[in-house]
Amino acid sequence: MSGVAGARPGAVRGAPRPAWFPAVLGVALALALTFLTLPIVAIFLDSSPARLIDALGEPAALDALWLSLRATAMSLGLILLVGTPAAYLLATRSFCGKSLVITLVELPLVLPPAVAGIALLAAVGPSGILGGAVEAAGVELALETAGVVVALTFVASPFYVRQATAAFASVDRTLLDASRTLGASEARSFLRVMIPCAMPGLTAGTALALGRALGEFGATLMFAGSFQGITQTVPLAIYDRFSTDFDSALALSAVLVAVSAAILLSVKLVQRSEALGGAAG
Amino acid sequence: MLRVEARTRLGGLNLVVSLEVCAGECLALAGPSGAGKTSILRVASGLLRPERGRVHCGGETWLDTERGIDVPPEHRRCGYVFQEYALFPHLTAWQNVAYPLRGMSRRERRRRAQELLERFGVGRLADARPRTLSGGERQRVAVARVLARRPDVLLLDEPLSALDPRTRAGAARELEAVLREVEVPALLVTHDFAEAAQLGDRVGVVDAGRVVQEGTPTELAAAPRSAFVADFTGAVVMTGTAHAGPNGLTLVELDGGGTVTSSDRGEGPVAVSVYPWEITIDPEGEAPHGSSQNRLPVEVLSVTAVGNRVRLGLAAPQPLAAEITQASAKALDLRAGSLVTATWKAAATRLVSI
């Protein structure tokens, strides 16, 4: 004990200080943790594993899972394909009206999902302002899987674009200059230098968009409807059966929790391995 | 031969430059930060497009704003070594060096990159990532990467400033060797006159967007054309009023008091410059050694050891600095507050009209 006291003379000088503030901090964290994890834990506790597996065996549940995966994958593909170059432009060029453009791109982030659904209907729905053009192009959106993809893309892409813009903006511009003077065109520099250097941020943005798309409910319901196998994603299927078949709703919820947790975990792992790989390599 | 002419506004700076560098020659641009040195390199490499300008390299025209020619950076063969070296953090050392190598197999790229790394003594670091390398190692990888491009011109931005003083001397010698070996024009930028003098065949002093004087380091030090150049080359600069004196010498009444003699001619308001190592220190009131000597009674303000020399801050009517050997500092028992006499030759006193 005397050794400890000798090493930290401040700890023994004067009266012991009341440790109420650290206690407050600890209580606050405990409250937050309980509040945030209890409902998630309850999903798994409120039903036996056997009943969960049974409920998942239903064709309707499998349809919903399969549709969610397909629609999310397609929407994510679109978001990455268009969002990455768009974010690069926002991050590396300055032009007139840029902050307005950024605000408009981020607007869906704060839009209530029901409003997003109405907005999509008004724009590309059957009687929307572009409805005729969409129909003429031979694309069926309302009450079709394509409509789900549109709804997911609309609500999820701002998450990616925002994160990707920040990621590109944080890459040292001298690296781009170096690449150019070493003989690479801007397009090549974008692929070979900017994307790899922005990768941790791009991964995080992808995960955010993925999580948002998987959980999308309101816009999809309003824009694409809820038809099993066509537009009924997992969140819609959960809503559809929670009054009639609570176990089945719980089972689907458990799957979403597992997938979401897996996404979060893999992003953390990717980011950590990149940080470690860079430092150790 | 590299020719750069540019005229452009950059924020508050008006950049007006015109310079020529021959093959195998290194022109070192020296000046304070914010003078526009780096912008000159960016114009030459195509990273910055001036409002008006021309860049020629060898027989090629890289930029001619009047004729609407602006070759993009990737098609100008510039070996640009950036200030912090700008190595790609996601690539290993050899992959960095191989980056400009195109149109050959991975094996061949690796072989050539390895060869260049060996040449700079960092072959064993081929698989290391830039962030694990020391400053000196990064600089070597950066130079190797630039040479892999087989550049028609070398552009070096503060190549030594990211290094700690201990590695700097060695790195400077290596860089000198590279500059001698590659037979292309080299344009180097630095804020340190001594570095410019060491690495450049010619030195251009840059101030506020212009090259204010160009010449060999010796020429600049011996005959600075302005007080700025004198000050930048490390001289002490004082101001005063000049008039003709005896024996063809010029007498200068210093502002604030005191008179000095110079072998330069001058009349009216002038800047008087002298290098700190030309000044000797004698005990107070010592008899003059000759009539062409300048003598000022001064008070020692500070005594700073710099290597085996001592730099003295001196209070005269205008501040002075002197550099003397440690031995003489000890013999004179100098300390802050000592009253001594500063002495230097009239021939070491430069006059510049202001």
Sequence-ordered SSE layout with sheet pairings:
The complex is a heterodimer of chains A (281) and B (354).
Chain A: H1 2-7, H2 9-12, H3 20-45, H4 49-57, H5 59-92, H6 98-110, H7 113-124, H8 131-136, H9 145-169, H10 173-181, H11 186-215, H12 218-224, H13 234-241, H14 246-280
Chain B: E1 2-10, E2 13-21, E3 26-30, H1 37-45, E4 52-57, E5 60-64, E6 69-70, E7 78-81, H2 93-98, H3 106-119, H4 135-148, E8 153-157, H5 165-181, E9 186-190, H6 193-199, E10 202-207, E11 210-215, H7 217-222, H8 227-232, E12 236-244, E13 250-254, E14 259-262, E15 268-274, E16 280-283, E17 293-306, E18 309-315, E19 320-325, H9 326-331, E20 339-345, E21 350-353
Could you explain the architecture of this structure?
The complex is a heterodimer of chains A (281) and B (354). Chain A is mainly alpha-helical. Chain A has a single domain (58-280), classed as Orthogonal Bundle (MetI-like fold). Helix content of chain A is 80%, strand content 0%. Chain A contains 14 helices and no strands. Chain A has helices at residues 2-7, 9-12, 20-45, 49-57, 59-92, 98-110, 113-124, 131-136, 145-169, 173-181, 186-215, 218-224, 234-241, 246-280. Chain A is globular, with a radius of gyration of 25 Å. The longest helix of chain B has 17 residues, at 165-181. Chain B has two domains: 2-228, P-loop containing nucleotide triphosphate hydrolases (Rossmann fold, 3-Layer(aba) Sandwich), CATH 3.40.50; 235-353, OB fold (Dihydrolipoamide Acetyltransferase, E2P), CATH 2.40.50. Chain B is α+β, with helices and mostly antiparallel strands and 354 residues long. In chain B, helix 3 crosses helix 4 (135-148). Chain B is globular and about 80 Å long. A six-stranded mixed beta sheet of chain B has the order 7-8-9-3-10-11, with helices on both faces. In chain B, strands 2-1-4-5-6 form a five-stranded antiparallel beta sheet, with helices on one face. In chain B, strands 14-13-12-15-21 form a five-stranded antiparallel beta sheet. Chain B contains nine helices and 21 strands. Chain B has helices at residues 37-45, 93-98, 106-119, 135-148, 165-181, 193-199, 217-222, 227-232, 326-331, and strands at residues 2-10, 13-21, 26-30, 52-57, 60-64, 69-70, 78-81, 153-157, 186-190, 202-207, 210-215, 236-244, 250-254, 259-262, 268-274, 280-283, 293-306, 309-315, 320-325, 339-345, 350-353. In chain B, strand 5 (60-64) and strand 6 (69-70) form a beta hairpin.
